[in-house]
Each structure stands twice: as structure tokens, then as C-alpha cells.
UniProtKB/TrEMBL annotation:
This is heparosan-N-sulfate-glucuronate 5-epimerase. Belongs to the D-glucuronyl C5-epimerase family. GO terms for molecular function: heparosan-N-sulfate-glucuronate 5-epimerase activity. It comes from the Eukaryota.
């Protein structure tokens, strides 16, 4: 073949090859291709970890093999990763180099920890906490008349399970185990102790006396009509001058009114007596500018709200004798609104800005009408007086609801007593006695010792661990549960009484206290879980799963031992508290 012919042949072969290649390319391009991706962990030439993402696209029409490309993910870039949790479930995580990042929503529930994003000066920071409760260091000294533990921080009436503070007796009604509401002696005592503590810490409040009957000038009173009247007179029972008022009983009338117009003092105190079906109405102004009427009326219904502008509190049927009303109007307003309004809405639009006026309906007498910044002393004595009036012949305060500690195993029928209730009642009564010097409070406290000397199986509150260690039961079930915090509260009540009483009452309280402290020192280690505390010993006495204490109960255990250390500096309390404080920060006891 001549050279020129050879050149032409090569040229023609090249053209044909190009045409064939183009044909095949076109055929492949028109076919839909499946893309399969795969992540592979590899290392680069320097030994650094990299993640390589391989993409396999379709099949090659010539040899049927996949066409593979490679994308290298930089080790510092986040990327999604599936996390297998105990071979039971999977969650979406993120990976950055050698670090794995798990969602905090998962970590929070899995490890029972806490955290939230907070913003300060325009910067965000995540605050992580192993626990969500606070330890309050005790005061350097403790006496039966001093602040009880850290109860100045307690707001019993603000708890969700408190339906209201009754206008009839001035103490909380709880819905904890019965939605209709009932008096729970522990809650009543804690209410009293908290307000006693708040008064000591805050001192006497600012007050404005609106009317005390000492002056004949009654020009501040506004009459609704010509028939209504007010006048001053001397009361034989109180032996002081009081104001007598007379107008219609009906709340549909305006009532006899005195203007308050005070923005600072949002509590009200008065001594009042009715001989008709009268009432007291306090008109308050809200942050929205609207007004709300809080009525104190004669009914056995604790509380109601018409959904508009009227809240009603029942004063029972306490006519014909003097009664003292001491009300924190902020809480009365909030508890009434909560019957039909969401809490967030209340905070937004229903805050109490000022007391506008007080109205009286019916025929009655009034003394010491006062606006006050707080009513802690009155609230404390409301609790103490309730305890005096409601102690039964056995020396206790029966709890009239069924309590199921463990359904079908640890249950109590209505009428049971609680060592915690007995002990905290004694702490209230001792303080009332020390403040007032009235012997009735001390005698009722001494009577409360009776049930500590009666076994749980016989309707008392005493149990014995292994037949030798006395334990005063918060829930006196059979078999026993040995609740820790309730037992320690009962010991503090016994301590308060033994330090205050004399004679036989002191001897009984001291014997019971010493026996209980011996048991606590012997058994306290049984409540240590190695990373927290146990609420009770049901896992030992009944043989069921342990009842771990929530963090707020764990810190209660710590606060109680810190208080006992002021009274008794036994080394067992010191070493136990140090361990339990460490658990709040995530520390654990050593393993084998």
C-alpha cells in the first residue's frame, strides 16, 4: 500500500471509531441511572483519618461494571451519622473527625441530666447540670424558735397541688391524692413553718391602717344609698372600739366601700363579724387595666370563679363571732384564675397592680382593716391554730384519703397518721408557744408524742427495722417502707420539743429522739445508691425494684443531714454528706 493510501486508511478508521464511541455514549446517556452512595473510613498517606464517600452510578453498557467516583469529606466537617443504642434503637447523630455528637434531648432523658441555652450580653452559652436542685447551707446555729432549715425558700401555697388557701381557716387545701381537696397535715405544717421563717428573715412588713374604729370620723366610707350606714361603737368581746356597718346582703348592690388606692401593699388583714349573710369584696386592678372582684362569702365551697371578673372564697358558716381574715391577694387572685385561665396567660395579663377598694355587704362589725406588704405572722398562726383545733383524741392529725405507696402492696386506708406530719406539727406548735407564751400550743405538741409510742400495725407511726431499730414512718404501711426524709423531719420535731418542754414531756421527747438518732446512724448507709440516694427501703422490705430519690429529694436528704450536723456532729453525717454532695456533680462511688 502506498503511503498516501495508508494515511487515508488510518484516518477512516479513526472517524469510524469516533462515530461508534459517540453512539455508545448517546445510548448510555439516555438510560436512567441508579446512584448508590457508600461511606468508607480510610486513612490518608500521613495516617490521618478521612471519610471517603463513593458514588456508584448506573451500570456500564460495555462490561456491566459500575462507574465509581470519589468525594473526600474533610475531617473537620460535620456530617450525619446513625447511632445504634444498645442494639435496641437508633438515633441521628453527627460526626466531626473523631468526635461523635448526640442530640441533647436524647442525653437528657438517657442520663437524667439537665441543660439549657442561656443568652448573656448577646452571647449564647449552654448551661449543663448533672442535677436540677439546690442545696441550701444551714445557718450556723439552730434553736426551736429559729428558721426551720431553709423553709424561707418554700412557697407552699404556690404549688400546683394546692387548690387554694381557705378563707374559713386560712390553711392550704391539697388535691394531691383527691381532686376534691382535703387538709393534709404535712402541708399545713410546712405552710406554717415557711411563713414563720419568712417573717424572721424579712422582718415586720410595711402596713397602712385603713380603719381601726378609734376615731369617729368616717368620711372615708362611701355609702351606696341613704339606708346604708356605718358608725363606731365599743365591742364587749374585743374590749375596743370597732366600726359597725349595715347595708344589703346582696352582691348585686354596690355595698359600703372604703377606697384603698395603694400600689405597694397587696395583702389585707381585718377582724370582722357578721350577723347576716354578708360578705367582703376586695376590688383589685390588673396589669391589663381591668378590675377583678375577690369575694369572701359565707359558703362551704372553698373557691370558685365565674370566668369573668368574680372569684369567690368560702368563709364556711362562721357568723356571729369574730374572725380574722389575713389574705395574700396575689395568691388568691392567681388560684382563682387558674380554675379557668392558663398560667402563662395569667402571668401575661392578670398580674395584680394595686388594691382599689374594699366593699362590705350585710350587717356586721369591723376592726383593724389593714393593707400590708405581707401577712407571714398571721399565716403562721393560722397553721398553728388549725393544728390546735384539729388534733384528735389520740394526739394526731388523721389523713382522710387513701394512700397507695405501692398499689396492692403498700397501701393505707383513710384515717392514717404520718410521723412526718406529727413531727412538723410539733415544730410549728413549739414556735407558736415560744412566740406567744400560750401553753395550749406546747400541750398539743406534747400530745402528738403519743403516736410515736404505738406500732404502725396498731395505728401508730413506729416501725422496727430487723426488730431492733426504731423508725418513725411517714407512711406507716405493713410491711414498712422506711422513708428517709419523713423520718428525719420527725426527728427534728422531737428535737424541737425536747429542747422546749420540761418534766415528763421533755423526757418522752428526748427518749424518742435518742432512739431515732441511733437508728439513723446505723441505717443511713443503706440509702446510699453510689450515685444518689434511695427514697425508701422498699427494695429490702418488699423485694421490689429500688425507689431512687429524685434530685429534689436527694438534696432534701442533704439539707436534712446538714441541719442535723449543727445539732449532732457525728462523723457519719459529715462523711455521708460529702459523698452525697459529690453525686450532685456526677461523681460516683468506686467500683471493684
Amino acid at each position: 500500500m502506498r503511503p498516501s493510501q495508508a494515511i487515508k486508511f488510518v484516518f477512516m478508521v479513526g472517524i469510524v471509531s469516533c462515530l461508534i464511541t459517540i453512539c455508545f455514549w448517546s445510548t448510555c446517556a439516555t438510560r436512567p441511572l441508579e446512584v448508590v452512595s457508600e461511606d468508607r473510613a480510610e486513612y490518608d498517606s500521613q495516617g490521618n483519618f478521612i471519610l471517603t464517600k463513593y458514588h456508584k452510578r448506573g451500570t456500564n453498557s460495555i462490561n456491566g461494571e459500575g462507574v465509581e467516583s470519589m468525594q473526600v469529606i474533610h475531617p473537620d466537617e460535620y456530617h450525619e451519622l446513625e447511632c445504634n443504642i444498645n442494639s435496641e434503637t437508633t438515633i441521628k447523630c453527627r460526626r466531626e473527625g473523631n468526635e461523635i455528637y448526640m442530640p441533647f434531648s436524647f442525653i437528657k432523658n438517657y442520663f437524667e441530666v439537665f441543660g439549657e441555652v442561656q443568652e448573656t450580653d448577646g452571647y449564647e452559652r449552654f448551661e449543663f447540670h448533672h442535677s436540677n436542685s439546690i442545696v441550701h447551707p444551714p445557718r450556723p446555729t439552730y434553736t426551736p424558735g429559729s428558721v426551720f432549715m431553709a423553709f424561707d425558700y418554700y412557697n407552699v401555697e404556690n404549688r400546683d397541688r394546692v387548690k387554694c388557701v381557705t378563707a374559713s381557716e386560712g390553711v392550704p387545701i391539697t388535691t394531691q391524692w383527691n381532686k376534691d381537696g382535703y387538709h393534709y397535715p404535712i402541708q399545713v405544717a410546712q405552710y406554717g413553718l415557711s411563713h414563720h421563717a419568712k417573717h424572721i428573715v424579712n422582718g415586720d412588713p410595711d402596713q397602712i391602717v385603713l380603719e381601726d374604729g378609734e376615731e369617729d370620723n368616717l368620711s372615708d366610707w362611701v355609702m351606696p344609698d341613704k339606708k346604708s350606714q356605718v358608725k363606731t361603737d365599743r365591742d364587749a368581746d374585743k374590749k375596743t372600739r370597732v366600726v359597725e356597718f349595715l347595708t344589703s346582703d346582696s352582691l348585686h348592690t354596690k355595698g359600703i366601700t372604703i377606697v384603698a388606692a395603694d400600689k405597694n401593699n397587696k395583702c389585707i388583714i381585718m377582724d370582722v363579724k357578721f350577723v347576716t349573710n354578708g360578705s367582703v369584696t376586695v376590688v383589685v386592678e390588673l396589669t391589663s387595666g381591668e378590675t377583678m372582684n375577690i369575694h369572701y362569702v359565707f359558703t362551704n365551697n372553698y373557691i370558685s370563679f365565674d370566668g369573668k371578673s368574680n372569684i369567690y372564697y368560702g368563709m364556711s358558716e362562721r357568723r356571729t363571732h369574730w374572725m380574722r381574715l389575713a389574705r395574700d391577694l396575689k395568691f388568691d387572685l392567681m388560684k382563682g384564675l387558674l380554675l379557668k385561665v392558663r398560667l402563662d396567660k395569667i402571668k401575661e395579663s392578670y398580674g395584680l397592680t394595686r388594691v382599689k377598694e374594699i366593699k362590705f355587704h350585710g350587717h356586721g362589725w369591723l376592726d383593724n382593716l389593714t393593707l400590708s406588704y405581707s401577712v407571714h405572722v398571721e399565716q403562721f398562726y393560722d397553721a398553728a391554730n388549725w393544728l390546735v383545733q384539729h388534733q384528735d383524741q389520740r394526739g394526731g392529725w388523721p389523713i382522710m384519703v387513701q394512700r397507695r405507696v405501692v398499689t396492692g402492696i403498700l397501701e393505707l386506708s383513710p384515717g392514717w397518721y404520718s410521723a412526718m406530719g406529727q413531727g412538723q406539727a410539733m415544730s410549728v406548735l413549739v414556735r407558736a408557744y415560744l412566740d406567744s407564751k400560750d401553753d395550749k400550743y406546747l400541750q398539743v405538741a406534747i400530745n402528738a408524742l403519743n403516736l410515736f409510742e404505738v406500732d404502725s400495725s396498731q395505728g401508730g407511726v413506729r416501725a422496727k427495722f430487723l426488730g431492733q431499730f426504731d423508725w418513725y414512718e411517714e407512711y406507716p404501711t405493713t410491711p414498712s417502707s422506711f422513708v428517709l426524709n419523713g423520718f428525719i423531719y420527725s426527728l427534728l420535731g422531737l428535737y424541737d420539743l425536747k429542747e422546749t418542754a420540761s418534766g415528763a414531756g421533755k423526757e418522752r421527747a428526748e427518749r424518742l429522739y435518742n432512739s431515732g438518732m441511733k437508728s439513723l446512724k446505723a441505717m443511713i448507709g443503706m440509702y446510699d445508691s453510689g450515685c444518689g440516694t434511695f427514697y425508701d427501703l422498699r427494695h429490702i422490705t418488699v423485694g421490689i425494684e429500688p425507689n431512687r430519690a429524685r434530685w429534689d429529694y436527694h438534696t432534701t436528704h442533704i439539707n436534712q443531714l446538714l441541719q442535723l450536723m449543727i445539732i449532732d456532729d457525728d462523723e457519719i453525717f459529715k462523711t455521708t454528706v460529702q459523698r452525697w454532695l459529690g453525686y450532685l456533680k456526677g461523681k460516683k462511688s468506686r467500683h471493684n
